[in-house]
Write a structure and sequence with these properties.
It is a single chain. The protein is α/β, with parallel strands linked by helices. Helices cover 38% and strands 19% of the residues. The longest helix is centred in the first third of the chain and has 13 residues, at 22-34.
């Protein structure tokens, strides 16, 4: 499901990017920064939760599915419980079949890798 995400109070300006592959994380962070976004990055779900628990206030999270330790899907579930004001987009290279199996339903917004950057920007309302 690729739907438009909105935040209640203001346009998205700060993003949390959770991606374990350093090159992908750095490249996407640089691209988003070049479009005016403030980017906080984490290499794992656990690191992302620590960042949020120590005062991080992004308006949206971009989360890779396959992370070391806690999966991206589990992180999204925790975000919805602990930080419900932060909508999340799941990013994955997984097959549609594996993705449907992991999601169980279509309530999670996702984008497939390789990312279509223009589609991502549309999702963020740039």
């Amino acid at each position: 499901m690729v739907a438009s995400l909105t935040t209640e109070s203001q346009p998205v300006e700060e993003l949390l990017l959770v991606e374990d592959e350093e090159i992908s994380r750095r490249a996407l962070a640089l691209l988003l920064h070049s479009k005016g976004y403030q980017i906080r990055t984490a290499a794992s779900a656990e690191e992302a939760l620590q960042l949020l628990n120590h005062g991080g206030h992004p308006q949206m999270a971009l989360v890779d599915l396959d992370l070391p330790g806690m999966s991206g899907l589990e992180l999204i579930k925790r975000l919805s419980q602990q930080h419900p004001a932060i909508p999340a987009v799941l990013i994955t290279a997984s097959s549609i079949e594996r993705l449907k199996e992991a999601l169980g339903d279509d309530s999670v917004t996702y984008l497939r890798k390789p990312l279509d950057f223009n589609r991502l920007l549309n999702l963020l309302h740039v």
